[in-house]
Amino acid sequence: MITSCNNRFPTRTGSNGYLGNFDMFGEPYIFNYRHWLYISAGAQGDLGVWGLVKRIDSQYHMLVYGDWGFHRNNALGGNIQIPKHQIEGWIEQAIQNNRYETVK
Chain centroid to CA 26: how far? Predict the structure, then answer.
């Protein structure tokens, strides 16, 4: 189950790699549900990336990463610890651009 991926996969640092794809598209859209974040960023619906992030002990862990394009739709599982300053920057940007929602 996705909810236990952080226990199944060892934590890896996320200071580079997949996270740059979120910055490339800019202006992420973020849904917050309890201790989960769904982050999505794309280029006019033609291609983009998304991630499912869980807050664990004030740290952020991306447990699922996905990308889509004209001829692909991928999802990858793991446990990437996202640097706190990076995710909080995306959250602040999403709030400022009215692209942040809290689902109850």
Answer: 13
Pull the structure tokens for residue 1: 């189950």
Single-letter residue type at 99: R
- List the chain domain ranges: 2-102
Alpha-helix residue ranges (DSSP H) falling in 1-104? 5-8, 19-25, 84-96
Q: Which two tokens stand for residue 20?
A: 């740059």
Which whole-number Å values give the CA distances from 28 to 33, 49, 54, in the listed order? 16, 9, 17
- Distance CA(70)–CA(92), nearest Å, equals 30
- Express each pLDDT in 17-49 by its tens digit: 677 788 888 789 999 999 999 999 998 778 999
pTM given for the model: 0.87
pLDDT at 10: 73
Enumerate the β-bridge partners of residue 104: none
Of the candidates 103, 91, 72, the one whose C-alpha atom is nearest the C-alpha of residue 29 is: 91
Token pair for 76: 């990858």
